[in-house]
Amino acid sequence: MINSTEMLNSTVTMSKVGQCSGDSEMAGIFKALTYGIIIVVSLIGNIAVITAACKDRTMNPTITLYITNICAADVIITLVYLPRMAVRYALRSTRWVIGGTLGSILCKLVPSIYHVSVTASILTLLALAIDRFLAVFYPLKRRFTVSKTRHGKIVVIMIWVTAFLARSPYLSVTTLRPKPNDNFICSASFSNLFDNYLLIRNIYYTLLLVAFYLIPLVLTCFLYLAIIIHLRMRQEIFTSQPRIFNFRKASKKTVFTFLAVSVSFSLCWGLYFFGQVVYTSVPCEIRFWRTFLANMNCAISPWVFLALNPHHRRLLKPSKVMLTGMYSL
Question: DSSP letter at 176?
């Protein structure tokens, strides 16, 4: 058992780690409003991409599934976690506003769902890159394999299971702790389970950094660059065959789009993953930007996709048939 003095010291320490210094009232309001804007932009963008992808009958079903999965993960983050950040900055406090049994359950679920969704996004980006690589390098071989849709569904299930297993320790280490004045703080602390908790914590976050950020994103970029080089080297062959040329041209545009989404993801989340390993040595002024840039990816990613995909933008416009029906009412 941890005595009251140790618990109080632990609580104060975590409070300082979570929020280095109190924001001014205007700064807190500004940050809360910024998160509110991110929530709105993210929901509109991701729902738009999901709608366009489902409308596009020409798109490979597996690609549609992967794109929908990425956007669904962003929507989950937006609805489950970002409101917490907005409230945190509006109150200018790291305190957990819900206590009791419900507060303890939400304290474990909200951060866990957040991190599982992030990991699922990274793995889906990798799966998408592998799918495009196989489609370009081995188009005939893939045509006679198992159903693409069925294969894609199996991959998506494996992605979420892997993401859950990788992030499951959060369910154990995240707890609701009492603070003075009948307040609570929700924080992850490995000290509850391990004596050498600092070493275990650093090992765990380093493994997450390497296995679920560096390796997937480096491999993703490598696969896309290999595809681009392959298409450029065989451009003369494709030019003599119009049908294949048009297919390869479309593939090249698709690859550039997915590469841009992957790069934007890596830029937004890089500071967050590296910051987990060396969190206590990260300057206070950097900690806000660490989480802000990461969470902003939910709002950036869908709009990057739409900006580079004019076909999907056209699918979002009301058709003439729809407009005629509306005016005839």
Answer: E
> If we measure between CA atoms, which residue out of 62, 57, 60 comes closest to residue 149?
62
DSSP per-residue string spanning 215-244? HHHHHHHHHHHHHHHHHHHTHHHHHTSHHH
Strand partners, 271: none
> Which one-letter DSSP state was computed for residue 212?
I
**Distance from chain centroid for Cα 63:** 17
Task: Dump pLDDT digits (tens) for 217-275.
Answer: 999 999 999 998 888 887 655 555 555 555 566 667 888 999 999 999 999 999 999 98
Are the C-beta atoms of residues 188 and 173 closer than 8 Å to each other?
yes
Q: Which CATH architecture has domain 23-324?
A: Up-down Bundle (1.20)
Euclidean distance between CA atoms 273 and 107, whole angstroms: 21
Tokens of 109: 């679920």
Please give the C-alpha separations between residue 140 and each of 36, 145, 152, 236, 310, in angstroms, as whole numbers.
Answer: 47, 9, 18, 20, 28
Report domain extents, the chain: 23-324
Residue 328: phi, psi to the nearest 5? -85, -10
CA distance 282 to 286: 7
Q: Which residues contact 116 (CB under 8 A, 6 or more apart)?
A: 160, 163, 164, 167
CB 298 within 8 A of CB 77: yes
Model's pTM, two decimal places? 0.85
**CA angle, 284 as apex, 278 and 286 as ends, to 5°?**
75
Burial class (CB in 10 A: 0-12, 13-18, 19+), 112: buried
